[in-house]
Amino acid sequence: MNKKFAATHVAAASALALVAGGCVGYFLVAGNSSDSVSVTAKRACPEIDTDDTTAQAFSELASSGSTVNSQLSEKSSGTNTYSYSCSVSVDGKSKLLLTAELAQSGSVETWRNNLAENGDIGTDKDRQTFPVSKKGYGLSSPFSAAVYLECKPTGSTLTGASNLSIEVTLLPRKSDSTSDRANLTRVARSLATHAQSAAHCQNPEKILNGT
Predict the structure, then answer these.
(1) What is the pLDDT of residues 156-195, one digit of tens each?
(2) Distance set, CA 147 to CA 15, 31, 186, 196, 211 (Å)
(3) Which H or E element spans position 110?
(4) What's this model's pTM, rounded to 2 decimal places?
(5) CA 176/CA 153 separation, integer angstroms
(6) CA within 20 to 30 Å of 154's CA: 75, 81, 103, 146, which one?
(7) What contacts 171, CB < 8 A, 6 or more positions away?
(8) What burial class does residue 211 get, using C-beta atoms within 10 Å of its C-beta: 0-12 exposed, 13-18 middle, 19+ buried?
(9) Do residues 151 and 174 touch, judged by C-beta distance below 8 A?
(10) Measured in whole angstroms, how far is the alpha carbon of residue 52 from the centre of its chain?
């Protein structure tokens, strides 16, 4: 059975509710105007808090501020649908967005063209491929990283090929930092590992580490 929860953290206080139908979480950390709160994967998007290096990459992307808010949603039918979203805002400004979904994007080329047309992966000159797994495909820009993985959930009745489409985006969509690109690809790989498990992909691939 799917679950739905909402949690709000203000300093040390928290509340939790469980309702059927998906999984949604809200996290808020508020300090004094002079305080600076570091954004951690463990509190904001715990699914990608898989190792110290990835956790550090996430914190460097999300930075810090006096008020940090994150919203998390993860939903799955167990067979034919899966979606994940975690957004982070700092001091009222959107900072980072992580998404994953079970899709029928067609070929890698079609998926890549769709990302380009939607402005999700930068310009031609800015795009670089990066290794993900034996069959997976990774594409990065200075402000985003995207992963394509074949995925047919166990028990799926979908007709035609299906895949996971994963994106990690730095907001606003601009950056010229080499370290941002490396951090984005690392976080994207971590989310890919989680998504394969959460979507119940048959024969999940081993996701590579590194930049």
Answers:
(1) 999 999 999 999 999 988 776 789 999 999 999 999 999 9
(2) 34, 35, 11, 12, 13
(3) helix 108-117
(4) 0.84
(5) 37
(6) 146
(7) 93, 94, 95, 96, 97
(8) middle
(9) no
(10) 17
**Residue-wise pLDDT tens digits, 92-151:** 999 999 999 999 999 999 999 999 999 899 888 989 999 999 999 999 999 999 999 999
CA dihedral 95, 25, 42, 173 (to 10 degrees): -20
Q: What one-character DSSP code corresponds to residue 206?
A: P
Amino acid at 209: N
Q: How far apart are CA 59 and CA 61, in angstroms?
A: 5
111 token code pair: 């998926």
Is the bond into 153 cis (omega within 30 degrees of 0)?
no
Distance CA 185, CA 163 (A): 18
CA separation for the pair 109, 189 (Å, rounded): 20
Tokens at residue 78, please? 């167990």
Distance, in Å, from the CA atom of 185 to the CA atom of 170, rounded to the nearest integer, reads 11
d(CA 33, CA 75): 35
Tokens linked to 20: 């059927």
